[in-house]
Amino acid sequence: MSELQIKKIYQILQVYVGKEWSICNLEVVPLLPKGENYCTNVLGVSASLKPGEGKQARAIRAIAKCSVSTGIFKIGFLNIYQREVNFYTRIIPCLKEFVRKHCNEDMEDMFPEFYGCSDQPQKATADSILLIEDLTTKGFEIKDRFVGYDYDEIQAVLKTVAFFHGVSLAMKIKDPISFEANIKSLSQIDLFSREVMERLWEMVPDVEQDNESNAKLLLQILEDYHIPQQYIHKMANFLASQYLPFAGEKLHTVPGTEPFSTLIHNDLWINNIMHIIRNGSTSETKLIDFQMYRYNHPANDLMHLLFTSVKHAVLKEHLDDLIEFYYKELITSLLRMECDISGFEKQQFFKDINVSMEAVFGHIIYMILFVVFGKRKSDSDNYEPPSIKGKNDDIPEEAKKNFCFLVEQVFKRNWCIGIDGLQ
């Protein structure tokens, strides 16, 4: 971290705590290995606050986000910084004001507090930094991704997610002009420019050979788990047309269907959700890491979350229950804000999952097999683009079971009708 960035952290904290406090003993340490959060380095910040007259000294902790040092990902960081600062400074206040106006109450706080940023979004540089609350100081934690959510835990998460979707959807219904100006316009900014995507592709030395190797590995897993041959044949067509490490591009290019489309997280999985657990159950949930949010169908978030973050046994037994539970919570949120729910029928929502699967299917496969159960990246500046090269034995059995269950459900439920290569 540069001296300029340290200075910027100090300045952000000083503005946040006020002039009556003096900042002492500022420390900044890495929280994640470089590359673990792709374009962003995540750092822990701690400091002592020396008070003015009549006040007691206290400590403060925060999370800092700044650019990785590798060239192409610096460019990606500028877009991510702009999006995340906009989310905390424009979108969240807008949603909270809407809830106060239409529910006569404060919006449930689903997000960490924003402490500040060094630069305005449109003036971001490679040295820009944003600071948010360190939720661990309040007892929040991230569930182990290698374990996944049980039934009660995922229900608690789905309540929060449905309310997050419901508030912005209600705003679209009741205050469409403000929604268009303050939510939709900001959530349609491309995550990566064409230049960045072209350079990312250039970093893959042999896409065709890499893709062939990937497909062979995944098809062998399906064979080993006795997935029907007609499904395997169609999956072979699909994998031939997809480079899975970049399948996430469809999250930003496949439009959602109306009337359900609204503000979604677009990267919703277990690592981007924090909880307080009291007496063995989830008492509070917060959503974090708003780098990829988008105007799209909430089923994108729902399906991505369920298939990447729920224990296999729970998902296998309760998939229908969980989809139904989420839908009811979403409608409850709309009714809470006195919205007309005609047109938001369950049948339409379930039908829309076909389009959502077109957007998320490839990315879910990549996440299940090589991110959720993947190894942590090394703490090195020599960061490479995502790769799924490996051997069958490198992939945990839980990941293989989730992958095969996903493929089976896509075909059995006819979610495949919009997915290239699976029709």
UniProtKB/TrEMBL annotation:
Protein name: CHK kinase-like domain-containing protein
Pfam families: EcKL
Signal peptide start-end: none
Domain CHK kinase-like: 130-336
InterPro entries the record matches: CHK_kinase-like, EcKL, Kinase-like_dom_sf
Membrane-crossing segments per the record: 355-373
Statement: the UniProt record of this protein carries the keyword RNA-binding: no
Entries under SMART domains matching the protein: CHK
Alphabetically ordered keywords of this record: Membrane, Transmembrane, Transmembrane helix
